[in-house]
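Example record

Each entry pairs one chain with its bound ligand, nicotinamide-adenine-dinucleotide.
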Amino acid sequence: MTSPLLPCPDFIAGEWLARAGGTAVFNPSTGDVIAECPAGGAAEVNAAVEVAAAAFPAWRDTPPVERARVFFKYRQLVEANFDRLCQTVSREHGKTHAEARGSIFRGLENIEYACGIPTLLFGDSLRNIARGVDCDTINLPLGVCAGITPFNFPAMVPLWMFPTAIACGNTFVLKPSEKVPLSAVLLGELLEQAGLPKGVFNIVHGGRATVDALLTHPKVKAISFVGSTPIAKYIWETGTKHGKRVQANGGAKNYIVIMPDADVAKTVENVSVAAFGCAGERCMAGSTALAVGAAAERVLPELVKAAKAIKVGRTDGAAPQPDMGPVITQQHLERVESLVARGEQEGAKVIADGRGVRVADAPRGFYLGATIVDGVQNNMTLAQEEVFGPVLNVMRMDDLDAAIEQANRSAFGNGAAIFTQNGRAAREFTLRVKAGMVGVNVGVPATMAMFPFTGWDDSFYGDLHIQGKESVQFYTQQKVVSSRWFGGDVADVWKK
Ligand code: NAD
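Structure tokens for the complex follow.
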């Protein structure tokens, strides 16, 4: 018996608006269609942006402490609905419950960050910049901001954006990934319950047509984007051409250097999580291990053992959770498998093979087991393209210099990590590697809410990153006020 489809309405002016049809949303654990994500276009975007523009003046003039209070309440509601949110993320994305919990904690920290907005909005001031003249900076919101998000973190990535944007005094239109729109709907319901005035936060579902309408709408002042590199580049080019501020996070290919002196057990544990956690569908996944000298002999056999022990299964039930869930769609599964096959054709060797894995109670789910490919060379497709699945490439390096050189050949620049006991090697690596987020014995150096998510090169287009103080700067514009007061004796003021 098939279950009824779950509702996936737009949210405009405080109204939940159902629209028929749209893109199929899967439960990747079973392959079943669980919802249809409507395909909004210019009409829906216009409606949402006009509503957000109309709501802006009153929200801008709401004192920051009152705006923060909404997010204190929102924080409570997200915490109270934590399990529901985790289940929604697991069901539409395929993350294990533990992974879903972790991602929502990261999102919750962004709400907590937004609660601090009264102090984050402080300006600078200097008395007497010239005789009798004072100078103050004021941080003011922009107006209507938009967020366009990817499939791989259905709740966390939207939470990277709208709490800070709205706490700064902006209004917001969110366009979630059409592959995972249901977590965003739940986040919107909770924000409504937190008492946010109607029209301050809106959701319009859809794909390219929705995005294009946002990118070209004259009343949208800023765009935050997270997704693949070609689309990030397109968003940045089109958005800036239309006069908007744009921050666009793109894809990645992150290297993990393993030095011969690395702690074997800890390295294996952390590299496994970095490569196979969230089924490798993370922009901070450690997708290539650069094994330096004897590190390959010391660490690789243990890594292969660990990969083979990873249990794959469905994540949509309450039942005991597997170590790893499915990938997002059948099409993506086939793409990842074909990249591994291409690696073999190009001369690499698969030393742990997760292809063809079957999950007995979910034969139509999109499963791939943990896979390790050894002997990868820089000119192979596997080394060049973002795979975005549970596949770890291994490249063997003579020394640290060669490893840094290899990591720095990447067009991307999101994350990089080193496993070593040697402070000097770690210091050299952190200074010389071309990546915005670096881990020392930390496999996934993704930053938390108070630090910016600092991708470089093809992993980021824009000037101010998402999260931390940079996001407050992104969502505000500065006004510098120079003031001087004429008059005689100050005591005159009180005479009348
Ligand atoms: P994607 O680029 O396919 O989609 C992202 C968003 O763009 C979605 O909302 C989608 O509807 C929209 N979109 C897709 N094609 C479009 C087009 N032609 N024109 C306009 N809009 C379009 O990305 P995805 O597959 O959902 O997510 C995975 C990618 O996101 C990976 O490359 C991953 O590395 C990246 N990612 C990056 C970060 C980061 O912070 N750097 C974080 C998470 C994910």
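The mean pLDDT is 96.
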